[in-house]
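Hi, here's the filled form for the chain we discussed.

Project: internal
Contact: R.S.
Residues: 117
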Amino acid sequence: MLPETLRGRQLFTRKYLIGHFNNPIVTFSARLTDGSEVEECSNFLLHQLTRGDLLTIVSELNLHTDVDGNLYFRIDKQSAFLGKIRLSDSDPIRVRLKFTRFGGDINTLIKNFLEST
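And the returned structure, exactly as it came back:
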């Protein structure tokens, strides 16, 4: 799910949790703050989506964003393991991209970004 240049780096933190039925849950999180890495990673992810998946996000933008400038979507875990990025709601990898507001409507900014990929 990461561009080649970021794959060898230690980006992920691991957290061990206990589920409702005392089942073990392991979560992995990555946080990118360097502007060039963020741009490279977000462009990589979005370019891997099918045109249909990208259009789904754009057409349902209100379901994938919040007022704080976050874009949310879920990727199929099995497809990601095979190197393909596909939207999915069942047993997904959750992705959040944070957009900084440089002026204007945040949804317009996100929509323009998505349509430019």
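Let me know if anything looks off before we file it.
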